[in-house]
Fold Two-component system response regulator.
Amino acid sequence: MSKLKALVVDDASFVRDLVRRTMRSQFPSIELHEAADGRKAQTLMGRERFDLILCDWEMPEMSGLELLQWARGHSHYGETPFVMVTSRGDKEHVVEAIREGVSDYLGKPFSPESLGKKVRKVLGSQLGDDGQKASASSDAFRQSADLLTGGGRSQKKETPPPAGEAPVESGNAPLPQTGKPAGGARGREATMVDLRFSQATLRGVLRAVTLNDVRVSARRDDAMPQILEQAVVDVDLGDRMARLNGYVYQLQAQEKDPDTKFVQVVVRFVDDDPQKLEDLSHFIARFQG
């Protein structure tokens, strides 16, 4: 069997590193290549043939959806497994990706196990014995796509994705001063944000935010994130929800008491997408003004 080639496309180097480590751990025989955006991926795909594309949605230069549309119109990539790996898990985006022929959909943040399952599912028998583990779920995914799209996209790609799963060890380093309290003037109603991890979601009060990171106070829970774990920060912009990708930089008890019920989580952002940076700037101005 010839060696399989996979292309990882994401503008965040941190995310590409996570995917690379997971793939090398679970699928050491797959040859990995990387691209920082859709345009660079398109160039690589024009030079050589890949057997699997793992692609982010929101990227500068060319989005994941645009790359998917180009791939499905290309003679070499009409049927190549294409997995969208993104924080955009709302129904309309899932439906849009399905209609354009996506093979499957994995939500950020993801666990190594969930990524491995997706790869086994879309590559199937090409992985030999490993591929057989995923075949049983294909019909369920197909039925899910029909429900979302009312029949799906002709017969080009019927395999649907579910919206992604949603991660979380601890560190005791002092919290950095990341900015003014996001609540603004004294007495203003607390600003709530959701921190999504691969196995849990923490809802907490936004304490400080900059273009680099965010600090949130949340109730202590059994499912705490781990240091360096992927995270997605959901912030309400009023007319839409911004989903900012990052990782857990620090996790600290809010009080010295070991029985404290609250923790403070610092998430550092990794997005390079200009639109996301603009959204974050507006959000900072809105709540620090």
